[in-house]
Design brief:
285 residues, alpha/beta, 8-stranded mixed sheet, two-stranded antiparallel sheet, 11 helices, 10 strands, 30% helix, 21% strand, disordered N terminus, disordered C terminus, binds S-adenosylmethionine
């Protein structure tokens, strides 16, 4: 029965493999907050830092470690990466981060868009993904990308440096979404954009496990309380939303309450292994 579902729905098969085969899938707790997916009981609760924790009514997906899935031949047709980047109107010279970059499906395209005067940071928490990404960049002679090995709650991005943070099929996998979004917000310039691309949960006919989909309402409910303003949802892709947010200025209280890890000295082409560790800690004023 399962076999026949997967034969008819190849996307389900691959995502099933991600779910069952990766070590993270086996070891990571899937349910991070009590409450049914469709329930209305998970209201925002005050966080310890005086901010507001996002309302989350979904299960967090396991981290995908299937590199072949990220370069599947039909991906260009269904995810239309060039059309996505056209729609985002990324100017030459822009500073962008590909957060959860995987093997770099979007990274090298971003690097071409921003050109030699721009800056691209490709971040992921799996060293293996960054190794493959680096190979991909070499094959394509792309040199204007900095690789950053992040952690589950900190993408280790430079503060106030980015025009855009792009997360393609990543947000639903973040095991610590609030912490990640706080760091990303600090990494953005004032008014910088956060863009999430996620499979539409609103459409049950899209052959992806619900765990790997997000609705617009769900994303807004989680992201907006974290200091982002929702700008628009672009809906031209066959299966995914493109959700655009901008960062609001951080409140004095939120900024002064914490230590901000910053990436210093990262040069173009630096590999994850060569990054200084531990990262220097700078206390915010
Ligand atoms: C489905 S893949 C998408 C990869 C890439 N964005 C793409 O579109 O090809 C999700 C990626 O997010 C990464 N990821 C998951 N949680 C993360 C976290 N907390 N920090 C950084 N990367 C993360 C995974 O390692 C994986 O490479």
């Amino acid at each position: 029965m399962l076999r026949s579902i997967f034969v008819r729905q190849p996307l389900l098969l691959v995502l099933g493999v991600c779910l069952l085969a990766s070590p993270e899938a086996r070891h990571q707790p899937l349910l991070v907050q009590a409450g049914p997916w469709t329930g209305s009981s998970a209201l925002p609760v005050p966080a310890q830092d005086g901010g507001q924790r996002a309302a989350r009514q979904r299960q967090i997906a396991p981290v995908c470690s299937d590199a072949d899935w990220l370069t599947r031949p039909e991906r260009d047709e269904t995810e239309q990466p060039e059309k996505v980047l056209d729609a985002l109107k990324i100017p030459e010279g822009a500073a962008v981060a590909d957060v959860g970059a995987g093997v770099g499906y979007f990274t090298w395209r971003l690097a071409k868009r921003v050109g030699p005067k721009g800056r691209v940071i490709a971040e992921d928490l799996q060293p293996k993904m960054l190794e493959l990404l680096e190979e991909n960049l070499k094959k394509r002679n792309v040199t204007n990308v900095e690789l950053v090995l992040g952690t589950r709650d900190d993408p280790r991005l430079p503060e106030g440096a980015l025009d855009l943070a792009l997360l393609v099929d990543v947000y639903h996998e973040l095991s610590e979404p609030e912490a990640m979004m706080r760091h990303i917000r600090r990494a953005l310039k004032p008014g910088g954009r956060l863009v999430l691309i996620e499979y539409r949960k609103e459409d049950p006919s899209i052959p992806i496990l619900p765990l790997h989909k997000m609705s617009v309402a769900e994303a807004r409910a989680e992201i907006e309380p974290l200091g982002f303003k929702f700008q628009q949802a672009l809906e031209f892709l066959p299966m995914q939303h493109i959700l655009i947010f901008t960062s609001k200025p951080a409140s004095k209280q939120a900024v002064s309450a914490c230590c901000l890890p910053v990436l210093s000295g990262a040069a173009p082409g630096i590999s994850a292994e060569r990054l200084p560790a531990p990262f220097p800690l700078r206390r915010a004023a």
